[in-house]
Amino acid sequence: MSTDVISDIASYLATGGYGTVGTSIFIDELRDLPDNQIVVFSSGGRPIQSMDGHTVITYFDVHVRNTSKATARSKAIEIRDYLGSKKSAANRQAILLQPPVIEYFGKDSMNRHRYGVFFAAFD
Question: Is the model's pTM score more than 0.70?
C-alpha cells in the first residue's frame, strides 16, 4: 500500500476512466492547460482524528475544471459518487465526504468553470 494518499486517489480516478495522471489528472497543481482537467489537492490543516476505530490520515479535495459548467458539475457529482463513502477504495479503508460536499468556485478569466469535492481518507 502506498503511503502517498493523493497519488493513490489520482491513480484510482484514472482507473475509473476519468483521465490520465499527468495528462488530464494532476496532483496539487491546477495547470493553465489543458482547459478541462481534474486536480487532487491535499487539503490538510486539520488534526488527525479517530472515527469508528479508524484514523483519518488525510483530507483531500478533487477539483474539476471544464469549459462547460454543466460538464464540470456533472463530473464533480460523478467523482463524489465514485469516491464518496467507499470502503477499501484506492488502498484506503474508507473515503468519506466532508461538508460542503460540492462547491462551485466560479469561472476563471479563460471562462473555465471549477467545482471542488471534499473528502477524508481513513486507514
Answer: yes
Cis preceding-peptide flag for 34 (omega within 30 of 0) = yes
Separation CA 7–CA 70 (nearest Å): 27
pLDDT of 37 reads 98
Q: What's the half-sphere exposure (Cβ side, CA atoms, 13 Å) at 84?
A: 15
Q: Could you tell me which residues are beta bridge partners of residue 59?
A: 120
- CA dist 16 and 46 (Å) reads 28
d(CA 64, CA 49): 27
Q: Count of CB atoms within 10 A of residue 57's CB?
A: 16
Q: Which CATH number fits domain 5-122: 3.40.50.980, 3.30.1360.60, 3.30.2000.10, 3.30.1490.110?
A: 3.30.2000.10
